[in-house]
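task queued by scheduler; priority normal; single chain, no ligands, no partner chains; default sampling; output format set to structure tokens
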Amino acid sequence: MTARRARGAACAAMLGAALLGAPATARGIEARAAGAARQAQDEVVVDLRVTASLGDRRATVDRGSADGLEVGDAIWLTPREGGRYRASVVEVDERSAVIELSLADFVPSPGTRGQAILPGERFGAPEPAPVDEDPEPEAEAVEPVDDGDSSDWSYEDDGFSQDMPLLAGARAVRPADRRASFTGRYYVAADATATSDEGRSESFLRSGGRLTFDNVFGRGGTLDIGGEWDRRQFNRPELDDITYSQLRVERLSYALGGTRFEGDRMQVGRFLQTGAPEFGVVDGFEWSRRLDGSHSFGVSTGFMPEPDQDYESGHDFEIAGWYRWVSDPTELASAQIGYQKTWHDGAVDRDLVVAKGHYLPRRGWTTFGTLWIDLYTSSDEAKGSGAEVTQALLTSSPYTGRSWGLDLTYAHQRYPELDRNELLPPVLATQLADERIHRLGGDFWVAMPVKSRLVGRLGVWEDADDEGGDAELGVELEGLMGPGTRVRVLVFGSAGEFTDVTGSRTSLGVSGESLSFDLFYELANYDQVGFDENNDDFVQHRLRTSVAWRAGGGVTVSGYLDGTIFNTERGLTAGVFAQWSF
């Protein structure tokens, strides 16, 4: 039997077994399945996005068990403002999951990108069945009968052998050959705050969505459209009420290439830059190329929308370029450097260098780092000539086998000197020269008996005027009040130049298949340093409740109610968020 006929017979056996419900009888199929399992990668990267924030360091993402996620998997979130933040999967549904953030002061907004790095064997084929020691004799090959027809085709060996995967040599479907399709999401969010301070109040309503069309023009490209309508109202007794509404086009772009078939990628329109997101949104053009070894580089140019509610463009122009090195196709280690030069209304504005990298061993310390370096010339009066690190973020976590966890984070920030200062809060020359903040912190947890764990964090900071620190320690109990419940009790404290704070937080969470509920209470005492005994302490009570409903069909709805009593002042905030992903 020829190689081509052997392959056809195996395909027919698989099809017949699927149609008739009978077990496959060709042992070659099992052998090839085992070969496919051996070809599975050591690690698989699954891209995801945050769909809603649930409070109490929890959020939902748009990936679930169908995508390979399991409870305990590590998630890394990369917000557009920079940095990487660790989270862990705590609940999994078929198409969604609940994650818990390591850092309590980071709240990811809906749409925040992230990645889960999963073991490749989770996606491999099942182990082959044991081979019968006394296999049945193979059927004798039947020689073709020569009927004298001169139109018989001739076969040329394509190199296929019995130990190769069944579909070896089959042509992969290219993006341009796929059927046109689209995905998207629509969301509505509303918040309102009222206080006892002479009737001050504030409300905010926003509604928006995003549509992504794949292969819409028949060339395998992607059309991305997204926008948001905002309405905000301020009520101030001493001023007239302020109301504004704005429709913003946040993305409108077309991207082509960048697949495994095409190393070049092009994107044009309004979009968040792909190669170097730290350089922000651009109305223009981006091009990148993937080299042998998976290294890549790219350039971009265009106008930068102003970072305010109007998103007006045309005042700030940029050119940028970057290069990214990776250790291997699995991206165990990577390093990237990029440069961006901007002009504001034709005048030189900023020279920015961004360097970042990561190291992701399966055992050992996982490390991420980002540096923002501003380059100055003699025309920069406050800074003078030279280079300055204006932002730095470094996070490192060891592999612990899920028995304990530790995240160490260092953060540093300074004011950069910019020409486009009319949109930003005014900064004095002395502040540009001296203001800074350094912070070193650690978040940890230790597994304890009976589904409980010890949690805590410790941090120290220093700025131009003072130094201080903060700490918290507590315990989490899973299932204490029934299946799906979680209780957390913490005590905390912080010391600063003007205020020392001590207090406690207690939270109760209940999670079901489609409904989650959280109740949170905080009691804190604020000691004002340097005041007399009759006016140095303020007590704060804060009570918050939130609920999230995963309705199915891509629909999620969440809401919260947050009340605060600070000394004699009172405030109440309520909000709702609904989203439909399709």
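post-processing summary
- Residues 129 and 426 are 71 Å apart (CA to CA).
- Helices lie at 3-20, 27-38, 429-434.
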